């Protein structure tokens, strides 16, 4: 096939990749490919390069451009250079890299001002004004990610162990944790020995959402998550000069916000702050946002958040 572009959405729970034509649209007949999630305590460029190699091996594609939105990205310029160096032998001549908050925004709202919350295993909120951008949270499971799947799962585990040793009220979450990790006395060992313990912890967020209607501990965790996410949106919009808007555009993305309790709690808080808030469905997903990186307008505030190297 002719030279193609590869768009990558790299998250902690999974990586998605899709071949595109060099001028943007998906290559007909080529599905989205799935790979294990990024390990943010390891070099990201090497992990993404492995994905690029696997795509080439599976599809036989000749790649010219790779564009990626990546969770845990800290030094976009270095990551882009390292990724280009690792994939030049595959024909890659240009690499575009951004934090996954940027690609989530580019997919959801394009160049329109507003805020996008992307709450999966981790969480980050990106607000964009006429010229300014503000990233809120997304500081990883060790230092932030308040309201994320990991944060909710970690709160659930804490509640279960408090119930187990008598510090907290009983919760139906205990049986769910026991079924996954075994005897609660030794559950922490089982979790800590799993190299994918972050995503495994985040997986409990779905159980918290499912029990929220009937379990007070679960509902309290969901309420707290909604409050954290609302605080991030308000902070972001304030920093980019949109807090005074009557109807700021806000887009809510990610598995955490598929849960009715957190979504409803966040929506209610946003409407309390801005009765006319424009809560929009995303125009496209983060994978589509990654594909848009090479085509950002020259005056787009998102361009300053994107590292591009090569031809």
UniProtKB/TrEMBL annotation:
<keyword id="KW-0418">Kinase</keyword>
<feature type="domain" description="ATPase BadF/BadG/BcrA/BcrD type">
    <location>
        <begin position="44"/>
        <end position="290"/>
    </location>
</feature>
<dbReference type="InterPro" id="IPR002731">
    <property type="entry name" value="ATPase_BadF"/>
</dbReference>
<dbReference type="GO" id="GO:0016301">
    <property type="term" value="F:kinase activity"/>
</dbReference>
<keyword id="KW-0808">Transferase</keyword>
<dbReference type="Pfam" id="PF01869">
    <property type="entry name" value="BcrAD_BadFG"/>
</dbReference>
<protein>
    <submittedName>
        <fullName>N-acetylglucosamine kinase-like BadF-type ATPase</fullName>
    </submittedName>
</protein>
<dbReference type="InterPro" id="IPR052519">
    <property type="entry name" value="Euk-type_GlcNAc_Kinase"/>
</dbReference>
<dbReference type="InterPro" id="IPR043129">
    <property type="entry name" value="ATPase_NBD"/>
</dbReference>
